[in-house]
Amino acid sequence: MVVSRILSGIKPTGRPHLGNYFGMMRPGIEWQDKGEAFYFIADYHALTTVHDPALLREYSRSVALDFLACGLDPSKAVLFRQSDVPEVTELAWLLTCLTPMPMLENCHAYKDHLNKGKVPSHGLFAYPVLMAADILLYNSNIVPVGRDQKQHVEVTRDLAEKANRTFGPIFTVPEASIVAEVATVIGLDGQKMSKSYNNTLGLFEEEKVLRKKVMSIVTDSSPVEAPKDPSSSSILALYKLCAEPAAVALMEDQFRSGGVGYGDFKKRLFDALWSRFAPLRARRAELASDPAALDAILENGADRARAVALPTMSRMRQAMGLR
Ligand code: AMP
Ligand code: TRP
Questions:
Q1: pLDDT at residue 1 above 60?
Q2: Within this chain, do residues 90 and 141 fall inside the same structural domain, yes or no?
Q3: CA 104 to CA 102: how far, in whole Å?
Q4: Count of domains in the chain?
Q5: How far apart are the first and last CA of the chain?
Q6: Of residues 1 and 16, which shows the higher confidence score?
Q7: Ligand 1 and 268: CB distance under 6 A
Q8: Relative to the CA of 101, which of 77, 122, 233, 313 has its CA 20 to 30 Å away?
Q9: Would you say residue 282 lies in a domain?
């Protein structure tokens, strides 16, 4: 398949964590050399949960800095704020009119909300349609995401196909790109790492905080001498993401043989994480010291994004009989 456009987004609802990094940011950044990559800060999506304007602005800038610190190169990839191209909300409406309710009733974020007895907003219900608009507006072929977003990309494909059947060939039908080994990064409690579960390790966490969080990883109560199960350990799963293969093999052996306690393994995990992200921390500090440079990158990104979005939008308006 010829790759022309890669696109993904991240919600500015807090600081990115290791799940975001390994599941989406790093694979996304690897794509920037293989095609035209578009990455955006999904601030419209964040509005389903963040209702503090100063905080939303701060998170949006901060996530952009994080992305750049992780290696996004603005001379290759386009980095922009979703709300700088407000046409995406118009496309979301046009797509909404093609979206069967049951398709959205089946989507996991909405179902989880209902299961928890909470009342979902209409924004949360319609969230996958806005995400489809993000993807389709920019004619994206490849969408690098973690496994939790697969369903949303399926919804996007269905809507693109339906629009193309009904109104002619307007949209590229995209595919999710999910890296199997990091499709779901595990959190401190053994569940999926997620901002909403409060079980995350932040990418740019302060040393003390990171150490404390790593030491709080939930384990069973096996004593030091006992052999331990390597397959069910969050410590080992996280260690695999950031340590050298030889160090991982040693830890696996020591799990099996017993004689080393979880506290020791956690210290090793902390050291590996801390040194793995040291160069990124340094780069982030440098980037953060020049806010005007960040503004310029985001403005340039918005211009480049708009240049792709406006023609798609006008094709869709025409096709649907507007104007
Ligand atoms: P979000 O913070 O929900 O905007 O997520 C941004 C990206 O990170 C999406 O592509 C998610 O699929 C990915 N992601 C979030 N949590 C994890 C996780 N625990 N493991 C792998 N990918 C994740
Ligand atoms: N829904 C995604 C998440 O929660 C963020 C997102 C919004 C996105 N629009 C997108 C991801 C378009 C990929 C493509 O992680």
A1: no
A2: yes
A3: 5
A4: 2
A5: 36
A6: 16
A7: no
A8: 313
A9: no
